[in-house]
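### Sample
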Amino acid sequence: MTQVRTRFAPSPTGFIHLGNIRSALYPWAWARSQQGTLVLRIEDTDVERSSQEAVDVIIESMKWLGLDHDEGPFYQMQRMDRYKAVLAQLVEQGWVYPCYMSTTELDALRERQMANKEKPRYDGTWRPEEGKVLPPVPEGVQPVLRFRTPQGGSVVWEDKVKGRIEISNDELDDLVIARPDGTPTYNFCVVVDDIDMAITHVIRGDDHVNNTPRQIHVFRALGHEPPVYAHLPTVLNEQGEKMSKRRGAKPVTQYRDEGYLAEAVVNYLARLGWSHGDDEIFSRAQLVEWFNLDHLGRSASQFDETKMRWVNAQHMKLCDNAVLAGLVAEQLGRRGITAVADERLAAMCALFKDRCSTTVELAEWLSIYFADVQPAEADLAQHLNEVSRPALVQLRERLAALETWDAASISAAIKAVIGELKIKMPQLAIPLRVLVCGRAQTPSVDAVLALFEKNIVLKRLQSL
């Protein structure tokens, strides 16, 4: 059995968003599920719009999501000599011919065709045929090179998403595969790359479907059968339009900065076009174990950030507390708060994570332990009264006398004050939370206080 080799081949012409990175996730998952190889190829032939900065962001985004590649990155601009050598081979074999039709002539031809309600296409003026007399070669014109598309018959392939696709060769004109300056074009370079890199499966967006029959012809002209194709439906934004930078899509790395877990983003993205029964929440290991090309969806999927936050919240609950502590320490650092990702911070994460959808929210909660709090005036007015004030004074004295600072000892002190003053738990616990934590609602107050340094609790209760 041939080893599975997939590829992710982005163009580095701007930041990469979730719709783009899904075209890396599925090839990665397929390669991993089959003990295969993922090749990273940078299609940078659009020299004016490509940048190394964009390449760096692609690699950074893949690294954050854990979509590790096995080979590459390979850059198309560094392979020009190889493309030109293959081009020369096709010219020699008669698959390619020079075309001297100018852009002006081509535009005029297309206008005539559209006026006649015909499909606009190159008409084969310069295509050599037996017995055909070609026009005289114009002086000083650098020709493009065109590929001789087979005439009659059709191109057929079994797409792993769309099923059987058949396109008549009569629908295809002769593809330009080299520009006047000799630079090869996209559809040609892709085929040479896929052959040289022994790609077995091409998993990409369905905006490439129209390129596929042309690429299949080039494969066969070079004596190779094409790979297996799987053309993924578009990812739509929340307005139902194709997700794009122009329509407000965010860079992948922005989700990291907004406190999403890589595991959760991978989980959510995987479900945007693939499913394993009704499973909504799963790990990366489960994705690799379950993934196959037979359960890729045929219809476009719509991105829903509310749903992604929910998926993230589920992964927060499952996440190892030590891992969360490291991520929260980073988020606190962005707020100018220095926190060490130690056992204490991990314990804080364990206590508060069920209330949070992102590590940003968790850092917001946990900042009460590292920075001064400012209780809202409305909370102070509502909860500090003639019943709670003396109870808080008495509690502070009991807490100051504790030899052991833990949840059990703090709980015993609170219950003793409640018993002595014959008040209800909320009459003490809520104002206690407001003064120490700056908010009226928290997890169990004894567990929350136990994670504070004792002197900070006493200091905040001193403000009575």
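Residues 18-33 form the longest helix (16 residues). This sample (Glutamate--tRNA ligase) is used throughout the tutorial notebook.
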